[in-house]
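Memo to structure team: turn this sequence into structure tokens by end of day. - J.P.
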Amino acid sequence: MLILPEEEKHWAAVHALNVAVFGSPAEAKLVDVLRQQDHPVISLVAEENFTVVGHIIFSPISLTGHPELKIMGLALIAVAQAHQGKGIGSALVLAGLERCKQLGFGAAVVLGHIEYYPRFGFVPSARFGIGCEYKVPEEAFMAIELQPGYLQGKSGTIQYHAGVADV
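Reply from structure team:
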């Protein structure tokens, strides 16, 4: 398996993967919107035998009252059902977080499974005094500092790209 930066040649396969994994076109549409309207987007694919079997995308977000902070939101992760449980999702998350660090982002957030994301260092964002602009379960909205102490003394509400609300 290879983890690669997503390229235009992957777009149709990524769209189909997201529709298959999530059972609707909404998440695939979100990926399309973020890819076109948000920068810099970190979008990676997992390939096995030249076939896209996984995808992850991060996009910049903001924390109210702290426009200077560089924070990424893990927007979506998808792994083809036949390839789940093989570490592909973990490899995508780790590669994506590493890429965020390389681009100088100090933290990332995710709305996700409370049993899955803590293994990567995510904790409930409320521990940092950070909430989500959408009504979501507090324990499922998590953050990770990519630079130690980056969120210390910062609090506010995470705001996503305007295109997210349209999906």
